[in-house]
Amino acid sequence: MHKAEKRYEIGKVSDEEDAKQRQVKGILNKLTPQNFEKLFAQVQDLGIETAATLYGVISQIFDKAIMEPTFCETYARFCVQLSVALPEFTEDGEKVTFKRVLLNKCQEEFERGKREEEEAGKTEEDGIAITPEEREIKRVKARRRMLGNIRFIGELYKESMLTERIMHQCITSLLGEYQSPDEENIEALCKLMTTIGSLIDHSKAKAHIDAYFERILDLSNNPKLPSRLRFGLKDVIDLRNNDWQQRRKVEGPKKIEEVHRDA
């Protein structure tokens, strides 16, 4: 992955651009699989005509997908259609494409997740003690965002918006050091493998996949991990052994009223 590009920031854009981003947010707040085509047309009609607008739109799509993971497939489809519909832009003499900005945003969110995990473990900030309750709130927030990001990355790969090489980079990073496994990373790994395992488990990648599952098997027997995570890892192993066929049906996207009711 490449270094993250400059991104859309409120306060550093014109009033016109700010108003456009608010309109995008309003449209995305209503997006469901049922009204997809109608709302996609509304975003197109707003006119994404500059790199600054593109950065803002992608940033908002990421925020929505991460915080509403049941709609990840819908937001991934939204990205596919935008990438086809939008032209290339030029900024500082360089080409700016939808896929390039999307890739950089994936990397940015991945790094942010790691940073927020580290910050959630701190016992003080600027010399001021952080209570266990405050640390737990930070930890839960960081975990939710990281898992949402991983799921969205997986859905983007399924839509051919990200490459298989990037998926292997994510898996390698999440596996980390066996001697000191990171619980949040293990949970994210299970989520990612469940999402994309059937697509990356092919003959050309067999050596890589076999190596991953040797580590996964070791981790599933690691007494230092909570039983919840060990069972999650065993579920991934079972899934592969079952040719990546879920033994029970996975729920699809809910209607927006159901999301708000369950929140």
Automatic annotation (TrEMBL):
Keyword Cell membrane (UniProt): no
Transmembrane regions listed in the UniProt entry: none
GO BP term, example: translational initiation
Limits of the MIF4G domain: 21-243
Pfam families named in the record: MIF4G
Gene3D superfamilies: 1.25.40.180
Species of the source: Selaginella moellendorffii
InterPro entries reported in the protein's UniProt record: ARM-type_fold, MIF4G-like_typ-3
Name of this chain's protein: MIF4G domain-containing protein
Origin organism lineage: Eukaryota, Viridiplantae, Streptophyta, Embryophyta, Tracheophyta
GO cellular component: eukaryotic translation initiation factor 4F complex
Family: Belongs to the eukaryotic initiation factor 4G family.
Cell cycle is among the record's keywords: no
Highest taxon of the lineage: Eukaryota
Keyword field: Initiation factor, Protein biosynthesis
Molecular functions (GO terms): mRNA binding; translation initiation factor activity
